[in-house]
Amino acid sequence: MIFAQPLWFLLLLLLPLISWLRKKRRHNQAISIRLPRAALMRGGNTWRSATQRLLPFLRFLAVGLLIVAMARPQKKWQEQKIKADAVDIMLAMDISPSMLSRDFYPDRLTVAKQVATDFISKRPYDRLGLVGFSAEAFTQCPLTTDHPVLQEFVDNLQTGRLEDGTSIGMGLATAVNRLKDSPARSKVVILLTDGENTVKDSYIAPMQAAEIANTLNVRVYTVGIGSDGVVMSPWRRKSDGSYEFSPRRLTFNTDLLEHIARLTNGKFYRAQSAEDLVSIYTEIDKLEKTNITITTKRHLTEMAYVFISAAMVLLVLEILLRWLMLRTLTPN
Fold first, then answer.
1. Splitting the chain (332 residues) into consecutive groups of 10 residues, what average pLDDT does each group show?
2. Are 285 and 119 in contact (CB under 8 A)?
3. Torsion of CA 262, 265, 268, 269, to 10 degrees
4. What are the structural domain ranges in the chain?
5. In CATH, which of 3.10.25.10, 3.40.710.10, 3.40.50.410, 3.40.50.720 is domain 87-289?
6. DSSP symbols for 58-83
7. Is 0.90 topped by the overall pTM?
């Protein structure tokens, strides 16, 4: 709500003065004789006496509303038409047991999910999807603009749903398959993994998946997560599905991820800490900008009639009460 002529509000300063003059006039008024009513003779306030004291407030409130109307209140609203040349992005996330390694707090997978969720929230106009992979791969969420739903899918990613192992080729191929029919000007896969391609007999080899991505003009950003050295990592799964941890030295093949990124005109990143991972996603966000054109139309609606109508209702109510229901032998 805005006011086109706010100087009219200065008239509100006169209301306290009018109230003071009115009380002074009543004080100097000649003594009048009022006929007693039975209810008053019994003592206590009646609804008539209580209402009588409210009459001046009704009039003052009505005058105040008229002054507000004179200030020309206006409702301001705007309409935005957004044209976005969006980017389609598939997140391919490793969910093999090694993603539970504790060189990140509390583990690699938890940090990766937190950073991915933040990345999704920063791209409101793009379609994004999610693929999880270990020895196999599955589409957790296809391309969508319903980002709250996608963020829930990211939060629900868990290890142990698929066979243990890491098939980078299957993860990449599944993500690329979701982009093959995309009409977007830019198609991107962000592939995050923490280990080597351990599944040698996979249906699709990593470089074969990269060649398919290159043919379909899909750019792949590869992210290797994990620090160097010995870390507490799962080494076997118990019968109840949980994992036993022990200090392990994990190997990491960065050459494969570099070749995939280079072949698809993407880029390889190495994240050895949570801060590194945040910086990587921030850089990717800047590299894959969405072209947005916003046309804004502003509208103003006059709202004075609302205040005038309310003031008229109060004045009519005050007149009816004063001259019909509360009428006495002497003036107020």
1. 86 80 65 52 58 76 88 79 82 95 95 97 94 95 95 94 91 96 93 87 89 97 92 88 88 88 97 95 91 68 89 86 64 46
2. yes
3. 160
4. 2-35+44-77+299-325, 87-289
5. 3.40.50.410
6. HHHHHHHHHHHHHT-EEEEEEEEEEE
7. no
